Structure formats: C-alpha cells, structure tokens
Amino acid sequence: MGYPHPSHARETVLLSQYFGDAGAKSYDGWVKRGGYEGLKKAVGMTPDAIIEEMKASGLRGRGGAGFPTGLKWSFMPKNDGKPHYLCCNADESEPGTFKDREIMRWTPHALIEGCAVGAYAIGAETCYIYIRGEFTEPWKVMERAAADAYAAGALGANVFGSGKRIDVVLHRGAGAYICGEETALMNSLEGKRGNPRIKPPFPAAAGLFGMPTTINNVETLAAAPHILIKGAAWYKALCKGNPKSTGTKLISVCGHVQRPGNYEITMGTPMKDLIFDMCGGMRPGRTLKAVIPGGSSVPIMTPGEVDSCIMDYEGVVAAGSMLGSGGMIVMDDSTDLVYQIMRLARFYAHESCAQCTQCREGTAWTTRILERILSGAGKSSDLDLLLDLADNMTGKTICVLSDSCAAPVVSGIQKFRGDFEAYLSGKRKPSLAGV
Ligand SMILES: Cc1cc2nc3c(=O)[nH]c(=O)nc-3n(C[C@H](O)[C@H](O)[C@H](O)COP(=O)(O)O)c2cc1C
Ligand code: SF4
Question: CB under 8 Å to 41, separation ≥6 — which residues?
C-alpha cells in the first residue's frame, strides 16, 4: 500500500496529522507526538465525567449511522456486576471507504488509546478490535502496536499505574461485508455465522456473549482522546455553524477526481470545495456526472445537488443523500450509471446473509433485472418493477443491507432515468452479454 498525499491547506488534520509519518507507528514515536496523554487523563477521571465530555463535544458515530457517541456510552448499565465489552468496528468493507485502514496503518496507537478510553468510560475491561480479514498490513501494524502498548503498561492489569484493567484483543474477520453490521460482528466474534440479530435487545442490554456491549467505529474511538485533551468546547467549535454536526470527518474520495485519497475536513465544508479544489476536480475534458457520498449504501447525487451540498450529517440529507461512512465515489460523464448500479446490486446480493426474504430475493432479483436491461433485453415495465422491489426491500428487514441495495437503484432511476431509458429504447448498445 502506498503513501498518502500531503495534506491540503484546507484540510483540518487531527486524525490524519501523522498519516505518512512512519515514526508515529511505534509506541515511543506516538508518545513523542503527544500520544497516550488522553488515556492518562481518562483514568484519572470518573467514567461519567468522560461520557459527559463526549456528549458536550457533539461527537457522532463515524461508522455510518451518526449516532451521538456520548449518548450511546451512557446507555451502558451502571454497577450491574456483569462484564461489559467494547467492540471496535474495524471491518471497513463499505465500497468507497478506506479511512479506518489508514488510521490503523499509520497511527495504530491512536486507535488503541481511543479503545482504552472508550472501554474505561463504559465500564469494560476488554475491548475487541474486529479487523477486516483482507487488511493484512493494518493487522500486522496493530498486532505490533498492541504488544508494545502492553509492554509499556498502557494496556493490561494496571493501566499507567491506575489500578484499572483494560485489555485489547485483536480479532480478524473472514471477509464478509455483513460482519460490519454491529450485531453480525458480535455473532462473528462469538464464533457463530455473522448473521445480524433482531433488535431489541440492543447491545447495551444484551450484546457480546449476552453482556452489555458498545460498538464503535475506528474513527469515532480515535477522536475520543483528542476531545479529552483539548476539551469538548474546542471539538464542538470545529464546524461551520451547525452544532449538531461537529468535529472533523475523514472523507475517502475515489473515482474520477484528479487527486483521490483521504481528506479530513471540518464538518460543514462545501462538497464542491472538496471535489473541485482539494481533490483537483475532474480529469481533463470531463465533467461531473454523479456522486455517491456516504459509501455505496446511500442515494446518488446529481451535480446540482453536489453544488449546494454542505458536508455534515444534516447538510447531505438536505441535498438528497446521507453522509454515511464518508466514502465518496465520484463519477464523471464517461460513467455508465446503469452498469455501476448493477455492480452495486451484485455486491449486495453477494453479501446478503440471506436471513430475510426481502433482502435475499430482492437483491438477487434487482441484480438480474439490471443485468437484463444492460443486455438489451429490458422491458418497458422494468423500471416500475425495480421501484416496486425497492419499496419491498426498504424498512422491512433485520438490518439495513436490504435498504442499502435499494437506495442507489431508486435514486438512480429517479435522478438518471435517461440512462436506463437509453438501454430500454435500444439507443444505447448492450454492455452485457445476454442473461
Ligand atoms: C451491512 C452493514 C455494514 C456495516 N459495516 C460497518 C463497518 O464496516 N464499519 C463500521 O464502523 N460500521 C459499519 N456498519 C455500522 C455498524 O452497524 C454500527 O452502526 C457502527 O459500527 C457503530 O459505530 P459508531 O457509532 O461509532 O458509528 C455497518 C452497518 C451495516 C448495516
Ligand atoms: S437485511 Fe439482508 S443482510 Fe440484513 S439480516 Fe436481512 S438478509 Fe441478512
């Protein structure tokens, strides 16, 4: 894997400050850069005080749903006498998202420190970090960092002499997208098939091994020590006027921009500034056609929507999509959107755990209908059929993988209907062999 780009002057580098700095990977290197001060401060505070600080900072989960982190931590029961668990979600399989991988590759101790802070705050002595199976380099870096953190007393039975125990256990996934869904992740950690569980019970009541559990994304946990060191008010001020979306967000930009990569922006940055300034805009001679802004599971945006979009949780919703995981797929006018939507549907069909009929059948049928359209054998009724299928796939299943497949299909038909009609009318030549 390569080196990241030098940061752009318009980025706010907090979590990505040491991306590309090999010296930050070691325990000593991390301490020299101010590392582990957040954890040292945390173990001198009460768990409730840490949770209040998180609430005041406005930090929201960076794994996709944007749930307020302090509030989630406060759901964990107090003095219940049971073991509590923290699960760090490092599965990062969402198409277009590659930020957690970089946090682990370059700043593994930032994640370990964040996990230890989170575990202490929710009354857990053990944090499992569930790492995507394909992440071979991040796995090795994390293994080394965890061993060094134990050797230095940052983890183990007596964290920095505080008398508090915090263990971090690394667990390698086996390559399933669905294991990033929090309840499937817990099943997988328990050695079971990675099928999502029906909620309730919610993880804070009965999670991993039936015990109270909190699941957080890598980027969320890595932000926690910064909040303790610099203060909730400082973090909350990192926004452009919307107090509901605060801090920085790592945005993974891929596709047809001149400078793809991870960009750390202050919440509230205009999307057009990110694409056309920081990422260098489109390739020469090309124009923007579409953006999927939050990983592949969110509605597709038109250039007009991009133009007015403010990049924070509320801003992207107002512009017709969702911020999600912050994995941004940028497509120029050379893109066959029908083909791209079919590729996404095929991905979801492949990754469906198949428990729910709407998802198992819906993702497979969506893929086949799109393949039929691309092969030139589409029927005029196919678009209505796809929309009807999507309706049956939305809001009716155990987890939202089904909805995630429907979102690009519905938005694609609504916003780029001409691309589909070109195949249906025969104006565009088939791009797939007959199915
Ligand atoms: C199909 C599916 C896949 C998911 N994959 C991930 C993932 O790879 N990483 C992640 O952090 N969250 C993923 N999530 C979201 C998690 O279920 C959960 O909301 C998140 O880890 C909570 O952490 P946060 O509050 O810090 O965002 C996924 C959700 C679904 C439905
Ligand atoms: S929606 Fe799909 S992936 Fe989620 S539980 Fe149901 S079948 Fe499995």
Answer: 228, 229
- Ligand 1 atom at shortest distance from the alpha carbon of 182: 17
- Give the dihedral sign, CA 371/373/376/378: positive
Pocket perturbation via mutation, ligand 1, pick of 186, 197, 215 by most ligand atoms within 8 A of CB: 215
Contact 127 CB / ligand 2 (< 6 Å): no
Q: Which amino acid is at 430?
A: P
> Which residues are within 8 A (CB) of 65 and not within 5 positions of it... i.e. 6 or more apart?
none
Q: Which residues pair with 217 in a beta bridge?
A: 89
Closest ligand to residue 358's CA: 2
pLDDT tens readout for residues 219-250? 999 999 999 999 999 999 999 989 999 999 99
CA separation for the pair 209, 196 (Å, rounded) = 14
228: which residues sit within 8 A by CB, 6+ positions away?
A: 38, 41, 42, 45, 50, 53, 117
Starting at the edge strand found earlier in the chain, the sheet holding 213-217 runs: 167-172, 126-131, 85-90, 213-217
Q: What is the pLDDT of residue 4?
A: 86
Cα separation, 156 vs 365, whole angstroms: 50
Report CA(322)–ligand 2 centroid distance (Å). 21
What is the distance between the alpha carbons of residues 191 and 197, in angstroms, rounded to a whole number?
14
**DSSP code of residue 5:** P
Model confidence, pTM = 0.97
CB 43 within 8 A of CB 162: yes
